[in-house]
Fold this protein.
Amino acid sequence: MDTVLRLAALCLLGALLAVLLRRGGGELALLLVLAVCGVAVALLLEPLGQLRDFWEEASAWGQLPEQLFQPLLKTVCIALICRTGSDLCRDAGEGALASVLETAGAVVAIVVSLPLFRAVWDLLESLL
């Protein structure tokens, strides 16, 4: 809860300052937003570590191979990175770059999920 409040305050302050900077020319506004995003990621490092630890525990509970959990975790990370990156591109007025980043994220998410698809395929083949 404390982390979310800090992030909300940081993002609101960053947004307010970005609006003020855009009135004066706007070039520095994007740099400010990038800096705020960097600080936000730094604030999220501890909760992300806790989430990683939980994923490791959960895979041990079910005695499932790590290869089944890794694609899920990687896909979530790819989605978050691409979403943030494409929003930053749109804020900079580069909608085409945002679309390319979203498409690249989808392709990479499918690629990292291939081991999971292969495991499902092998399971289906063994049942036939």
User: Anything to note?
Assistant: Residues 1-46 form one domain. Residues 14 and 36 are 6 Å apart (CA to CA). The chain has two domains: 1-46, 65-128. The radius of gyration is 19 Å.
